Structure formats: structure tokens, C-alpha cells
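User: My instructor asked us to take a sequence, write out its structure as C-alpha cells, and then describe one feature of it. I'm not sure where to start. Here is the sequence I was given:
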Amino acid sequence: MFCPNCGFSMRKNFCTHCGYMRNGQFIEADKVHEHSLLEYYFGTKYDYYARNSNWLAAGILGPSYILSHNFYITGFILFFFDLALTMFMLVFNHIFVFTYLVRFFNVLFIIINRYVWASIGNMIYTKLLERKLRKVMKKNPYDYKEIIQDSYRLDNMLTGLKYFIFGSIAIISFVIAREYIYSYFFLL
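Assistant: Let's start with the prediction itself. The C-alpha cells for your sequence are:
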């Protein structure tokens, strides 16, 4: 259920965002809640990102998740680091003689890698976004709230398409790098 006062999702009998209760009264607080920059940016989707509800997208895409949200430099750095680490682990696992152990460790590494990205991908995104929003606030001290609220729509245009494009690039890069490394070390 969404709060009729502010539009955020309600928890049990009250809104954790504005203090509105189902009986129509407000929870009185000593301090008025000041919105964070991320709350202005995400609007009603703030709880979705704050509680890491989109962990599946971050886990599947890995560094491509950061790329898809317009943080290209950081995303490419993380992408190449992730690709290099994955290739190292694939080559390193071939020191074992038994092929079933190699496949087991490769699959285990990929599962752990995706789990780590599911855990930290959204956190990295929100920290980068918060830094970007602070720059907007510093540059426009009087009208930063409106600019931040408008930038959410602009930043997230075609996000699904970006997920598809950057995810495809990641898969193709992984396959090409794997074939190259395996042929270089005669592991095929």
C-alpha cells in the first residue's frame, strides 16, 4: 500500500517516509525529515534501490549494470577488472589434472562472482550517483531539487535496452577472451 500523503510505500500501519498513519494522523517527530539527494532523484522508487530490491539485475549484469546507468569510466574499469579476474581464474583452475574439478571450480567462481555483484552492484551505483548529485547540488544551489528530479527520467531512458546492449557486449567479450586465452595456453 502506498501512502496517500507522499506516495512512498507504507510499512504496516504507517509511512516510514512522512509519518502518516492509516487513521489519518501523523507521527510527531522532534525533527522534520530532510530528504536525501537520492530520495529526490528516485522519488517513489527510493525504497526499491535503498533496500537493494534490484539485486537480480546487478547480479546478472555485473559491471555492465554500472555501465547501463551512465557511469561509463567506472563501469569500464570494473568491467575489465572483472574480465581479467575471471580469465585468471579460468586459467588458474587448469592446473588441476581432473577435468571435473576444473569445471566445478570454474562454475563455483562464476556463481560467487555473480553473488558478489548482486550484493555490491547497487551499492556502487548509489554511491556513484550520490557523488554525481552532490556535484549538481554544488553547481546549482537554489534549484538543485528540480534538476535532480528531472534527471532521473533522463538518466533512465532506455535502461532495458542498455542492459541488453552492455550485457551482450560482456558475454561476447567473455567468449572472445576465453577462446583467446584457451588457445594461447593450449587448454582447449
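For the description part of your assignment, you could build on this observation: Helices lie at 37-42, 46-50, 55-61, 63-68, 72-92, 99-139, 144-155, 159-184. Try explaining in your own words what that tells you about the chain.
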